[in-house]
Design brief:
Elements (H helix, E strand, L loop, with lengths): L6 E4 L4 E4 L2 E2 L4 E5 L7 E5 L10 E4 L9 H23 L4 H13 L5 H21 L1
Parallel strand pairs: 4-6
Antiparallel strand pairs: 1-2, 2-3, 4-5
């Protein structure tokens, strides 16, 4: 089989082109079909069962999560577990936890001392702002 730079196939209409040209050698094409069952069609054959043929199989699957995404989901779950009981006690809204996670994400590159200082300052600001109301 030759190098494929472009590929056009229509199983229903019987169209198979590779690099813009009609395929002239017997070729079986397999594509993803409904409910996981593959669709197949034999192209460019004078009989239904040629002795030799090329095969082209296209597989489609959902991309797997990256390690970084999995770590982030795990970290967010841990944060959620830490804050969930306290958040319920204060009748917090569901998106409040998202805000907390964003704040923690911003501080992920800080040292513990820097994070503690930032949170202490934030606590002071919150106390002042709630007194103003």
């Amino acid at each position: 089989m030759r190098e494929i730079r472009s590929f056009e196939v229509d199983i229903d209409k019987g169209i198979l082109k590779i690099n813009g040209q009609d395929v002239e050698t017997p070729t079986i094409v397999t594509l993803p079909g409904p409910e996981g069952w593959p669709l197949q069609r034999l192209f460019a054959s004078s009989t239904d069962a040629p002795v030799e043929y090329d095969r082209i199989s296209i597989l489609a699957k959902k991309p797997e999560k990256s390690v970084t995404e999995e770590k982030k989901e795990t970290r967010n779950k841990e944060i959620s577990e830490i804050f969930s009981q306290r958040m319920r006690g204060f009748n917090a809204q569901p998106d409040d936890l998202t805000s907390i996670i964003k704040v923690i994400e911003v501080m992920k590159d800080c040292t513990i001392e820097q994070a503690e200082a930032i949170l202490e300052d934030a606590s002071k600001i919150i106390k002042i702002m709630t007194k103003i109301k």
